[in-house]
Germin-like protein (Liquidambar formosana), 222 residues
Amino acid sequence: MMNGVHFLVAAVLLALASSFAFASDPASLQDFCVAIDKYDSESAVFVNGKFCKDPKLATANDFFFSGLQNPRNTDNQLGSNVTLLNVDMIPGLNTLDVSLARIDFAPYGLNPPHTHPRGTEILLVLEGTLYVGFVTSNPDNRLFTKVLNAGDVFVFPVGLIHFQFNVGHTNAVSISALSSQNPGLIVIANNVFGSNPPISADVLSKAFQLDKNVVTYLQEKF
C-alpha cells in the first residue's frame, strides 16, 4: 500500500511528466498578432512567434491575399509549382496555426516526396487526377496511397513523407490547408543530395547502398 511519502513522490513525478507531455508554444493572448519583418519599437508591441504590429495599426490587407485563382508556371523538371500562403505572405496568419497552398501540376507532374515538420496537411483536388500517398515511420514504413479526382480529399499526417503525382493527361490543381502558420518543408532528395555543404559521399553511399560515383552524380544534379 502506498504511504504518504510514496504518494507525494508519485504525484510530483506525474506533475513533471504532465508538464513535459503538454509543453507547447503559448497560446495567443490577443485576437491577432500581425507579423512584421523587423522589430520597430514604435509599431511593435507584442512578441508571439514573430514581432507583432500594434493591433491599432492593423488593416484588412494584413489578412488578405489576391490571385490564388491564377494558374502557376509548371515548366520545370518536376512539372509542378507550389504557391504557399504562410505567415510570410499573409502577416495576419501569425500565431493562428494555419496556412494554405495551391499546387499546380502539368500532365505527369510531381510534387516530390517531402515532409512538413510542423504541420498536418489536408488536400482537396480541384481539377485532374492525382496519385497521392504517405509513408509511416519506422519500423513499419507502411505506404498509404489513393487516386484522387476532383472533389476528393486526403490527409497527410504531420512529419510523414508524402507526395502527389498527376497521373492524368491534363493539368491538375489542388488546394492544401496546413496546421501551422509556417509548416516547414523538407524535400527528401534536395535535402539529402543537395545539402550545403554536401554530406560525405561515404555516408550516403553506405546509407543508400549505392556506388560512390552514383552518389556524386546525384549530388551534382541537386
In short: Residues 4-21 form the longest helix (18 residues).
